[in-house]
Design a protein that fits this description.
The chain has 249 residues and is mainly α. Helices cover 52% and strands 0% of the residues. It contains twelve helices and no strands. α3 crosses α7. It is globular, with a radius of gyration of 21 Å.
């Protein structure tokens, strides 16, 4: 028994560091990982009901917006796993159009998005999105799998705009720009709030803070754990610099 315990300790000491350097998965390892994800998510999804917004066009649109802001960086605009970060993680971001992803039930996909997956780069979004929003993710991904739709492309950020963002600046709008970029707002709304259309809001209205704190359709919630009250003031100061949408004649 003592020898067995010593062997386990040696495996933990020497095998764990080697596992952290492992960056390539063969076909057998990938198949095993897919089977484990399917098994774990099926167990977790046991008591989850049907998708209440399946096929709903508004939910699909909301899911697309949320996917662009929170998922496309890893999973790619076409949900094919070819995002800018997803190909450089291990395991790589899942191709959500693959056969393995298609075989997951709506309930399994809901469970994974809400709770995340340990030992992977997949976070859980329970604190950022409501259950209805997570179901919208699922509705959108099903639409992608069936129709090959693609998330919209937000405007690119210029070098000058990146240089303007400075969390250590004494200037509130510059600190706010750093928060705006860091929290992923730029991915959906572009560097000056112009995507998918120019944002129209009143930075002095409590409704604007409420929308950021509680989230709106297709947008995550940003509690004080993500953006402090002082950080919110800086964020609003940056948003106040955005161009005012032109009124339609």
């Amino acid at each position: 028994m003592l020898g067995f315990i010593v062997a386990l300790v040696l495996v933990a000491v020497f095998a764990a560091p080697l596992a952290l350097t492992h960056r390539n998965a063969g076909g057998l390892e990938t198949a095993y990982a897919n089977a484990v994800v399917s098994f774990v998510s099926a167990r977790g999804a046991g008591n989850i009901g049907q998708n209440p917004v399946a096929g709903n066009s508004q939910a699909i649109q909301d899911g697309r917006s949320a996917f662009t802001g929170s998922c496309a960086q890893c999973h790619g605009a076409a949900a094919d796993g070819k995002g800018v970060f997803g190909q450089n993680t291990f395991p790589q971001a899942t191709d959500l159009t693959s056969q393995a992803a298609r075989q997951l039930s709506d309930q399994q996909m809901f469970y994974i998005i809400k709770n995340g997956l340990g030992f992977t780069g997949m976070p859980g979004y329970a604190n950022q999105y409501s259950d209805r929003d997570i179901w919208a993710f699922v509705a959108y991904l099903r639409d992608v799998q069936q129709k090959g739709t693609k998330a919209f492309d937000a405007a690119e950020v210029s070098a000058d705009q990146l240089m303007f963002a400075d969390f250590q600046s004494a200037d509130s709008p510059r600190r706010g720009a750093a928060i705006y970029f860091a929290q992923g707002c730029v991915t959906c709304h572009g560097p000056t709030g112009q995507a998918p259309e120019q944002l129209n809001f009143d930075v002095n209205s409590p409704d604007t803070v409420k929308a950021i704190r509680q989230g709106v359709a297709g947008m995550p919630r940003y509690g004080t754990d993500a953006i402090s009250d002082d950080g919110m003031k800086d964020l609003l100061a940056y948003m106040a610099t955005f161009p005012v949408p032109e009124e339609e004649e």
